[in-house]
Amino acid sequence: MAVTSPSSSSSPSSSEPHGRGGLGGGARRRPLGLLENAMKRKDSFVQLFLMTGILMISLRSLGQKYRIHDLSRDTSELRQENDSLALRMASIKDALLHEASLDPSGLLASHLRRLFQDPN
What we know:
The chain is 68% helix and 0% strand. It contains four helices and no strands. Helix 3 (42-101) runs antiparallel to helix 4.
């Protein structure tokens, strides 16, 4: 009958092939794949996808906000340009009609009135 001391039982014996938690690794578990991990942590993945969706919608909304701002600024600039062109055309028309009224025959003035469809 062999009696073993407590110090000798704490060391790994030769009957254990790899020991427990040592460098041998013991029974290795295969890492979970994406789908298995998603099924295991279903709530976390749903939360991740929802937060990602909210982030993407927020970024799109921010881009649309700046696009609307740029378009409203462009609209304002185009209205100013339209007003200035209308004033310029009116001044050119008045200048032409004034010069045509100086012609003693009146042919040029009547021709310009027909062009501009001016009832005067």
